[in-house]
Structure formats: C-alpha cells, structure tokens
Amino acid sequence: MALLAVVVAAPAAQAASPVGMTDGFYVDPDSNPAVWVREHAGDGRQAAIKANISTKPIARWFGNWSGDIKTSVSGYVNKTGTKLPVLVAYNIPGRDACGGHSGGGAGTPAAYRAWISAFAAGIGSRPAVVVIEPDSLADFNCMDSAKIAERTAMIKYATEQFKAKAPNTWAYLDAGNAQWVPADTMAGRLDAAGVRNVRGFSINVSNYHTTAVSTAYGNAVNGSFSGFTKPYVIDTSRNGNGHNGEWCNPGGRKLGTPARTGGGAEMLLWVKVPGDSDGRCGKAPGVDAGKFDPQLAFDLIYGY
C-alpha cells in the first residue's frame, strides 16, 4: 500500500522586530536642541540642555520642509547604524485644520499619497519606528464629513504603504491624547484608518498628560476595538508634571521619562522635540511652531 505524504505548510515568515534588530534608540546629532547646543557653548543654559535634552533619543519630524522625501528619509535611517530611529510623518493636507498653529501639509490627496509612499520606500527594509500624522484623527471637529472621509482614506493608504514597503518598521497611527476624543470614538476612527495594517497607535504626541493617564486611555481604546487589540506608544517628552489644561507652550511643565521600551505602553518615546515651540502662544508668543527656543527647553528641565 502506498504511503501518503503529509505536507505541513511552514508558517508565513514574520517581519523582524525593529527593537530586536537594534541596540537602543538613535540620538540625533542634528536635532534642533543638539544644533543649538553646538552653536551656543557660551550660553549659561547650554550645559543643562546638553545633559538633559540634546543627548537623549528624540524623534525626527518630516514634512513639506524636508525636500525630496525618499532621499531625506533614506539618508536619515542610513546613518543611524545599529540604533533604532524614530520618525514622524507630518504632511497630511489641511494639517492642524482646527488648531491652526501648525498648518500646511501636502497640497492635494494625490500629492500626499505620492509623498507617503516615497516616505515608506525611503525606509525600505531598515528597522524604524514611525508615528503617522499626529493629531490627524483627532482634529475632526471643524471638518465636514467629506473632508473626514478624504483624510481617513489618505491615512489608510499610508498604512498600506508601510505594510508593503517598510516590513521592519513599527508604524503607529496617532490617536490624539487622553482628553481629546472619547476612547470608543477614537477606536472607530483608528480602525477605519487602517490601524490593523500597522503595529499600533500613538498617544499624547506634543501633549502633557501623564503616562498613567495616557496608559488608561490606551487601554480604553484597546477595549473598544472589536475583536482585536493593538500595542501603543506614549509621548513622554513633556509630561513630567502632567497637563494643566493648556496645550500651547504652557508654563510649569517638565520633561518626562526618556525613550525606553515598556513603562505601561509598548514604548515611551520623546516624539515632540523638547524646546520646540507649539506656536506663537503661551510662553513663546514670538516663536513659530516647530522652532527651537532655548528658554522653553531650559524651563522643561526644571519644571518652570
């Protein structure tokens, strides 16, 4: 009697963990605070900013100021060696539509699709962490249904591009912060925008809520998904003293836990660059959004 050969299919290969492929987070020598430190050796604030901010791992933000995006992203991740880079994609059309301080972005949905596709291709197979479009899924309150649908489709396209072109990247869709959008509403927005295609979601980017408050929100979002959960990361760059009800360069805030894995979330990251202004407001009325102000940085060190 002939023997029947039984063939057992091997499981599909899984993409490697970018954390496992690297040995710690990358410290950007050309971050805004690092450049300021190099250029201001005689400033009385320089030593404190160097010790507490510029030598820490901080995300690099990419947008319409970055030139050819594939070249810019590829150049950045190629120089990080054995360290893990954290990048932020920040170019959605109508960016900061309701807040107004960080406006801009790609001119059209088609332009955005080309840009984000090139972003993912620029990373390629290298290990990376990417936060996709901070505030974009929370900032709906001044948008009509057509604009919301258009934005959701663009973000979903972004998730598809990272899944297809950056297999060793952990990408996170941004979920706003703990007091912006109810967790069940945000869960629906994340799912519609393709969170199942990527690693997970990010919380508290450029905001001040404590890690404990943000963790509770992340868990609530996960509890609102239908049939799945996702890892999340928390921006701890400025949450050491928590949130005081203001979001635009408020006083009395403080640096939080530096970048690490774990800590209540999958990772704690410095996504917002400490010392970069939120806009012409609060303690820095003359400093544009994204521009480094040494006094803002210095005050975050001491909680002033």
TrEMBL record:
Q: What is its EC number?
A: 3.2.1.-
Give the matching InterPro entries: Beta_cellobiohydrolase (IPR016288), Beta_cellobiohydrolase_sf (IPR036434), Glyco_hydro_6_CS (IPR001524)
Task: List the active site.
Answer: D135
EC class (word): hydrolase
The UniProt keywords, alphabetically, are: Carbohydrate metabolism, Cellulose degradation, Disulfide bond, Glycosidase, Hydrolase, Polysaccharide degradation, Signal
Pfam families per UniProt: Glyco_hydro_6
Single GO molecular function? hydrolase activity
Q: Which first-to-last residue range defines the signal peptide?
A: 1-15
- UniProt similarity note: Belongs to the glycosyl hydrolase family 6.
What this protein is called in its record is: Glucanase
Species assigned in the record: Lentzea rhizosphaerae
